[in-house]
C-alpha cells in the first residue's frame, strides 16, 4: 500500500493518499476523498501529453535558436565578405588612379620629348642653313 502526501482542499493539512485503494484521507479534518481511477488515468495521460508537447516545443525552440544562430553567422560572413570585396574594390580603384596618373605623366613626357626633338631638328636646320647659306 503506497502512501503519498498531498494537501487537503478543505483545511490545507496533509492528506494521506492511498494510491492502491485510490482514496485520500485528511489527517486533520478527516475529509475523505475517493479518487476516480479513470479520472486519474485521464489526468495522467493529459499530463503525459502536456509533457510531450512541452518537449516538442522545447525541441522546436532549440531548432529555431540554432537556425537563428546559423542565419546570424551566415549574415556576418556575408557582411565580412562584402566588406572584403569593398576593400578590394577600393584598392583596385587606387591602382586605377595611379595607373591613370602614370599614363598622364607618360603622355606629357612623350609630348615634351617630341617638342625637344622638333626644337633640336629646327636648331640643326638653322645651323645647317646658316653654314651653307
Ligand atoms: Zn482537512
Question: Keywords, please?
Answer:
1 helix, alpha+beta, 4 strands, 133 residues, four-stranded antiparallel β-sheet, rod-shaped
Q: List SSEs in N-to-C order.
A: EEEEH
List segments where confidence is low: pLDDT < 50 over at least 5 consecutive residues.
Answer: none
Count of the separate structural domains: 2
Q: How many strand segments?
A: 4
Distance between the termini: 145 Å
- Number of helices in the DSSP assignment: 1
From the helix content, strand content and strand pairing, which structural class follows? Answer: alpha+beta
Largest sheet: 4 strands, antiparallel
Strand content: 5-15%
Helix content: over 70%
Q: What small molecules are bound in this structure?
A: zinc ion
Please give the radius of gyration in angstroms: 48 Å
Give the spatial strand order of the biggest sheet.
1-2-3-4
Whole-number average pLDDT?
Answer: 90
The 3D shape can be described as: rod-shaped
Structure characterization notes:
The protein is of the alpha+beta class and 133 residues long. The protein folds into 2 domains: 1-35; 51-132. It contains 1 helix and 4 strands. It has one helix at residues 37-132; strands spanning 3-7, 14-18, 23-26, 32-34. The chain has a 4-stranded antiparallel sheet with strand order 1-2-3-4, with no helix packed on it. A hairpin with a 6-residue loop joins β1 (3-7) and β2 (14-18). The longest helix has 96 residues, at 37-132.
Present the secondary structure layout:
Elements (H helix, E strand, L loop, with lengths): L2 E5 L6 E5 L4 E4 L5 E3 L2 H96 L1
Antiparallel strand pairs: 1-2, 2-3, 3-4
Zinc ion binds next to loops.
